[in-house]
Design goal:
Elements: E1 2-3, E2 9-10, E3 27-29, E4 31-36, E5 40-48, E6 54-60, E7 66-69, E8 73-74, E9 79-86, E10 92-100, E11 107-114, E12 123-125
Parallel strand pairs: 4-11
Antiparallel strand pairs: 1-2, 3-5, 4-12, 5-9, 6-8, 6-10, 7-9, 10-11
Amino acid sequence: MAGLEDGAFWGRGWFVFNINGGIGARLAPSVLSAALLPGGRAEIELANLGDADLLILASTVEQPFEVQSAPALIAPGQAAAIVVHYPGSGADEADLVINSNDPLRPQRRVALRGIKDESAATMLKWERADGNSTGRL
């Protein structure tokens, strides 16, 4: 196959793609956002949907939120939780930033919000559409 200067292609041919190795580590947080009451805590599950060990390199959040615990490694097909505490008094927002060795999305964010009362409490949970054995939906 040959390309022309104007971007058009002519001719014909075939291609062989050899893909070696697996898909690597894949970080999948169970939620995109979480709301916490004063003094509350949230366990945010992290799943490894890949075929290699997932390394959690750093988990950070701005004050007044605090990361109480975070896994260092999650095996393929397993899950573990990051625990976030909110010692504030309400009306605070921050992002939990999770850095990992996921080659496609090495940094993931979970929006956190401190709220004053339960009537505003929400935790959004999204169902994942995972590919079949061919990697297609």
